[in-house]
Specification:
Elements: H1 3-12, H2 16-25, H3 28-45, H4 55-65, H5 69-76, H6 90-97, H7 103-116, H8 130-142, H9 149-158, H10 170-176, H11 181-188, H12 202-213, H13 216-229, H14 233-246, H15 250-255, H16 257-263, H17 269-285, H18 290-301, H19 306-319, H20 326-334, H21 342-354, H22 361-370, H23 376-386, H24 414-424, H25 432-445, H26 450-461, H27 470-478, H28 493-505, H29 527-539, H30 546-555, H31 572-582, E1 591-599, H32 602-608, E2 614-622, H33 629-635, E3 637-638, H34 662-673, H35 683-692, H36 699-709, H37 714-729, H38 735-747, H39 753-766, H40 771-781, H41 793-806, H42 814-818, H43 827-840
Antiparallel strand pairs: 1-2, 2-3
């Protein structure tokens, strides 16, 4: 029997130990015979099941018989040779198989395998530890185990249950945890997790083992070294936990004071709080010199966390009694008079006022200058204690005018068309201007340039797709138009119009121009350009598409004086346009509103895990009798009907369908927007597009904007804030309606107040006039004697105070005046009292 036949028999039976023993005793000729046969045999085995008993012996055979270390490393790394089960124990066979090789060869293999070892290799349900064990075994022979991230993470995960006394790797690997970021991140996942008695918590086990087997100074220095490198709360949780378990004494902290000071300004909150506790302990044991004290206080006072700033103010309050710190402590506290949160400012004012007798003239002057940025209520308190505060006249911020974005010029050549095709298919969610531009370019230039464009179209559009510009790409490839149908009766009206236009455009290929391509980023179409396009169709002896014409008319500004532009045109399309423009569009569109419980399906229903299928919605109804079919569909509304809330991919394009009727589009978006607070539905682009349109706004616009402001994603809230400011700059913000619906949907649980308030505060500071919003929201949300205020109510009241102070509002809110809190010590009660004082001057 040849060497290969014997090896094959052992592989076939899953005998990894036998394969290793054979590989270890055969000579060079035998190894070459096996190495030559292995690739062909592996091809015979394909497909190898993931639990195939041949996978492990195949790995061992390749390790023992393939020639160079590079080839062996590549063979062992093959994914098709990684089983799901039965992976333990293979490393010892691999090590046996390579034992006849030279020491230099084995070290070369170890290095190559170590280079392939990644921390992510251990994140599988059943990690394949073979790599790690082989690497460690080979390096151990050379007595030079490197402390790479992959090796350290492998040790943490493989040996978490090994007693340090039985683990020869512990002295090398344990200190390396502080330098291998992935190891600490793995342990941090389990900090605070309660597994009961069923599972071992790796974070607790490792903490106990390093605490019991490493020197205290080594642990403290290791923790600080890792914390100073920075990271997220999740990445650093275990090191913070271990550091707190060590509970450094004031003496230990003093010897590391410079490191703790470096952690104060920019570390994550848990790290900063821990460092602050050590600095404060050192200060209490032996007062810090003034330079160090000031450095620490300033670093802490300018952190974003209110909790840390409050704790720092309390520290300064206590230290202000010290004779050598009275002046500097008061000055440091006065430095936060400009803080964005009212509770911080008020606490700072109380502390400074409390220590007024300790302030020398120079300190008092510093306080008065700092107080100039305070709102009037707090400024008056400082003035009463320290003397008159000079305030420069502060102008109310003015919102800049809204300037529409510029659109890219139309596609003017096959070369530009080719570039647009490539760009359009680079991403799956282009904005509507890009879609409109490409659709127009395909109609105008596609047929003439088909041969030049064919390679790109076949690459990007050579497949049937029922949506978008792919319809036109496929029509160009087929050399024939796609029949226009009138389906999609159940689709939302704006979505249906887009889809009908895509289908229709395939029948218009080679036409002079699409009528409906917008000329403004608002979605509007210039009447003169519309008339010129219509003349081009008439000159070509062709009729434009029905839906192209209807969309074009819906995009014209409401200006009946431009009918004369159509003089001399005699086509049926011109007659339709003349009638529409003479009537100034659809005329008035009357909408009615009500809040109701309706049946809901789709994302909103499932995400919230409701016990019933009734959800609170703004119901909008309206009718419009128009000779224009698309107008009748778009202006006939009833959002109470039972239908799916499933996300429509084209919703971000809808505002461009009716650019002069923003409220109508907002009503169409209500079903989509109801899902925005709890999911990712491209609400950022949609709400910005809505704000860029024109036309009246009312309760539907307010509700859609509110849903966007309440999104759980910061990027969506930022876009919603920009939309709010844009509407305010246009004098089109329905502020009172926004405040009323804020109260309604907070009460139903659809909106999280805390997410909304931050944006409202920023809007006030930018110059938006939101007082009607605050009046309506506060009236609705003030708690009754039997209810608790919603989370974020104090911040809402604080934002209202800032708005009142900024815009010098002195109108009372009757509900606020009459409200009596159950306790005057709560922050809500204090903010309410502050607002009342500001409004009434008492």
């Amino acid at each position: 029997m040849s060497v290969w036949e014997e090896m094959r028999t052992r592989i076939q039976t899953g005998n990894s130990a036998g394969v290793a023993a054979l590989a270890a005793r055969i000579d060079e000729a035998g190894r070459k015979e096996v190495a030559a046969a292995l690739p062909g045999y592996l091809r015979e085995c394909v497909p190898l099941g993931r639990n195939d008993l041949r996978t492990m012996p195949l790995r061992v055979a390749g390790a023992g018989c393939l020639g160079g270390a590079a080839a062996v490393a590549a063979w062992l790394a093959r994914r098709d040779l990684r089983p799901v089960r039965g992976i333990d124990g293979i490393a010892v066979h691999v090590l046996t198989a390579v034992s006849p090789r030279t020491s230099a060869w084995r070290l070369d293999l170890a290095r190559r395998l170590a280079d392939r070892l990644r921390p992510s290799d251990f994140d599988r349900w059943q990690p394949d530890y073979m790599f790690w064990e082989v690497v460690v075994g080979l390096f151990a022979e050379a007595e030079q185990i490197p402390r790479t991230e992959g090796i350290v993470v492998g040790w943490v995960r493989r040996h978490i249950g090994t007693d340090p006394a039985d683990d020869p790797l512990f002295p090398v690997m344990a200190p390396a945890i502080f330098d291998a970021d992935a190891a600490g991140e793995y342990l941090s996942r389990f900090v605070g997790a309660d597994y009961g008695s069923a599972f071992v918590n790796p974070a607790e086990v490792m903490s106990a083992r390093v605490l019991g087997n490493m020197k205290r100074d080594e642990l403290l220095d290791g923790c600080l070294r890792r914390l100073l490198r920075g990271g997220t709360q999740r990445e650093l949780a275990w090191f913070v936990h271990l550091h707190e378990s060590l509970a450094p004494s004031p003496e230990e902290a003093a010897s590391r004071l410079r490191d703790y000071l470096r952690l104060l300004p920019a570390s994550v909150s848990a790290v900063a709080e821990s460092a602050f506790a050590r600095v404060r302990a050192v200060d209490e044991s032996e007062p810090l010199d003034q330079e160090t004290f000031v450095e620490a206080a300033r670093a802490l006072l300018f952190r974003p966390e209110r909790r840390i700033v409050k704790a720092t103010l309390s520290w300064l309050d206590r230290t202000a009694a010290s004779a050598d710190r009275q002046g500097i402590s008061i000055e440091l506290v006065a430095g936060v008079f400009g803080h964005e949160h009212s509770e911080i400012r008020e606490r700072a004012v109380r502390i400074v006022t409390k220590h007024v007798t300790s302030a020398d003239p120079l300190t008092a002057e510093t306080v008065r200058r700092s107080a100039s940025v305070l709102p009037s209520t707090e400024r008056n308190v400082i003035a009463a204690a320290y003397g008159a505060v000079e305030v420069d006249t502060i102008e109310v911020p003015v919102l800049p005018p809204v300037v529409p974005r510029e659109l890219d010029p139309p596609i003017a050549s096959p070369a530009e068309l080719r570039e647009a095709i490539i760009e359009d298919h680079h991403g799956w969610d282009p904005a509507w201007p890009e879609v409109e531009r490409l659709m127009a370019g395909l109609v105008t230039h596609g047929p003439a340039a088909i041969e030049e464009l064919r390679p790109d179209i076949e690459q990007y559009g050579g497949f049937y797709h029922p949506e978008g510009n792919d319809i036109l790409l496929n029509a160009l490839l087929a050399g024939s138009p796609r029949p226009v149908d009138d389906v999609l009766e159940s689709a939302p009206a704006p979505d249906a119009l887009f889809r009908r236009r895509f289908r229709e455009a395939a029948d218009l290929l080679g036409g002079p121009a699409l009528l409906a391509t917008p000329t403004s980023a608002t979605g509007h179409l210039d009447p003169e350009i519309f008339a010129a396009r219509l003349r081009a169709w008439e000159a070509a002896g062709r009729q434009p598409g029905r839906f192209d014409l209807e969309q074009a008319l819906l995009r014209l500004p409401l200006d009946g004086d431009r009918v004369s532009l159509l003089d001399g045109l005699a086509s049926p399309a011109a007659a339709t346009a003349r009638a529409w423009m003479s009537a100034d569009g659809p005329g008035s569109v009357d909408l009615t509103y009500r809040i109701a419980k309706i049946k809901a399906w789709g994302p909103d229903h499932w995400d919230r895990r409701r016990t019933d299928d009734q959800v609170t919605r703004l119901v909008v109804t309206g009718t419009c009798a128009s000779d224009l079919d698309s107008a009748s569909r778009l202006f006939t509304l009833d959002t109470s009907r039972e239908k799916s809330d499933i996300f429509e991919w084209s919703a971000r394009w809808w505002p461009s369908v009716l650019p002069s009727h923003r409220e109508v589009i907002a009503a169409h978006l209500l079903d989509q927007a109801a899902c925005w607070p709890t999911g990712e539905y491209e609400q950022d682009g949609t709400i910005l597009a809505l704000s860029e349109a024109t036309g009246a706004t009312d309760r539907a616009t307010a509700t859609v904007l509110l849903y966007a402001l309440a999104s759980q994603r910061a990027v969506d809230r930022a876009a919603a804030l920009d939309a709010l400011l844009s509407l305010a700059a246009q004098n089109a913000l329905p502020a009172a309606e926004l405040g009323h619906h804020l109260g309604v949907f907070i009460g139903t649980g659809d909106i999280v107040l805390g997410r909304v308030v931050a944006s409202l505060t920023e809007a006030v500071r930018a110059g938006a006039h939101l007082w009607p919003l605050f009046t309506a929201a506060i009236t609705t949300l003030l708690p009754t004697p039997d209810t608790a205020p919603p989370t974020g109510m104090a911040d809402l009241l604080a934002a209202a105070s800032e708005a009142a102070d900024t815009h010098r509002i002195r109108d009372t809110i009757p509900a606020l005046t009459a409200w009596t809190p159950k306790s005057r010590s709560t922050r809500v009660a204090k903010e309410a009292a502050r607002l009342r004082t500001l409004l009434t001057g008492t």
